[in-house]
Amino acid sequence: NMRRSYMFGGAFVVLFIAIIVIIVVCVSSKNGWKKQNPDEPEFWEKGAVYQVYPRSFSDSDKDGTGDLMGVVDHLDYLKELGVVTVWISPIFESPMKDFGYDISNYTTIDRIFGTMNDFEVLVTETHRNGLKLVLDFVPNHTSNQHEWFIKSESKEGNYTDYYVWAEAKGFDKNNTAIPPNNWMSEFGGSAWEWSDTRGEFYYHQFLVEQPDLNYRSEHVKEEMKNVLRFWLDKGVDGFRVDALKYLVEVEDLGLDEPTDSDNPALLQHIFTTNQPETFQVLREWRELVDKYHEKVLMVEVYSEVEDVMRYYGNDSVSLAHFPFNFFMLEALNNRSTLTGYDIKDTISLWLDNMPEGKWPNWVLGNHDNGRVASRLGKDMVDALNMVVLLLPGTPLTYNGEEIGMEDTFISWEDTKDPEGCRWGRDHYQEHSRDPERTPMQWNGGYMAGFTNGDNTWLPINPDYEEINVALQKNATHSHLKFYQHVTKIRQEETFKKGEITFPTYDDSTFSFIRSLEGYPSYLAVVNIATVNRTVNMHLGANFPLPNEGEIVICSSTSEAKETPNGSMVSLDSLALMAGEGILLKL
């Protein structure tokens, strides 16, 4: 009887604990996100990833184009900035038809950026400064000047199948070869290009000069693993994988993709993206990377959220440490239509769909999209940097966003971006990515401190005398100092491990709370409106809030406020300037 009693009592305790766990999980799911693994974080979880676009960061040899030693010269700046990881866009040998994303040799540094010795110095100095270094990895395609393609076009041995080749479907009345299917390039037009040398079409998802590799070839897969090993052995700390969803296509190249039901001019890319074999290749790369100590694999995937989440893998199969989250970048593109609902929904979209136990990330800008100050307003630079830096997960910062750089007008004559050039003089401004790629503005002196040479590869923004690193370093309040302050705040336990909840948000206001038992809670508030407002944070709040909070930091544009950091303010009447972001300790 005693045994049955103990068994009954034990079962009751187990049932009781299970009920409590279910309640906690449900409440946590409803209110926000909570870190699942409280152990010591990996390096990419500790702080921001800072994207360096090397052409535009710093020029050390006076040729007008940024280079590796230019990055080395400013590693102390990145350390002071408070970022953890430096991610460098492509630096490999390339004809530069797409500025480095058309690679002709994966294991050679392009002479524009320097030498292999320069790279080794960069690795050493990055690590000496306590930073990590991540390289861009472009596996989907090579340059058509790559030795592999030249040999494949000539059908030399194993190279024959290194790329995606297909015979013509037929020939028209002019004896012009007809492509095997209707697949379209991301840059417009057919994705198939005829080779007179081989007498077949090759597939290119992007430029004609960027033929797609064939990952159904075991030789290609091994080649690319060797590329990863080469750079890992050089000491890099991981990779950002470019354009991953395009890696593999269906085997039957005679299949046409169906047209989009909403726009017949577009195709549903069911045969050219997110193929099962892509995930298998990624799995093999993750297994390779995991054999090295503390390495990260970040992947670029523009797709629907359900597809993007698949790149995390699951409990039994680990894939990317995280796929890039571009939903914030896409949603936050126009101040006139931006609302607090948009920001909250964009954050929840990722957190609610992310597999349990995985790590989020937030991308607010990059080299392919207009700068935050130009898209959303100068007054919102600090507020939005605060949001991405203090959300749970890894923030990604594009160089120059920390000082509020703006898009630069580029004339047709100065346009370099192939995407802009393709659209011609009348439409290049709608498509060119040059405006957000102009040189980093280091100071108000000669050539903005970017180079001591006579020219720059793209024009420097004329506003460099008002917006530059040196000026903001010396100012009492600045975007730069705000960014540095927030990166320090981010190191508090609440932001490392705490959960997130959303007390109130509406057309003009967005807010979130980070909290962790035993530590202070923090309330971040953003005024999205273009006018000053006084907000009652209790009105319409989703749960009770305290009566007041202590100002920790507020936007650099708010230096006129009579309530300095450390002041107590009422949440019933919180005064906010246009575009202001404010952080309160509760």
Automatic annotation (TrEMBL):
Which CDD domains does this UniProt record tie to the protein? AmyAc_maltase
Question: Can you tell me where the transmembrane regions are?
Answer: 6-27
Q: Which GO terms describe its biological process?
A: carbohydrate metabolic process
**Domain of life per record:** Eukaryota
* Xref: InterPro entries: GH, GH13_cat_dom, Glyco_hydro_b, O16G_dom_2
Q: Does the keyword Hydrolase apply?
A: yes
**GO MF terms, alphabetically ordered:** alpha-1,4-glucosidase activity
Keywords, A to Z?
A: Glycoprotein, Glycosidase, Hydrolase, Membrane, Transmembrane, Transmembrane helix
SMART domains listed in its UniProt record: Aamy
Q: What is its EC number?
A: 3.2.1.20
Q: Which reaction does it catalyse?
A: Hydrolysis of terminal, non-reducing (1->4)-linked alpha-D-glucose residues with release of alpha-D-glucose
Please list the residue ranges annotated as the Glycosyl hydrolase family 13 catalytic domain: 51-437
Protein family: Belongs to the glycosyl hydrolase 13 family.
Query: Per its record, how is this protein called by name?
Result: alpha-glucosidase
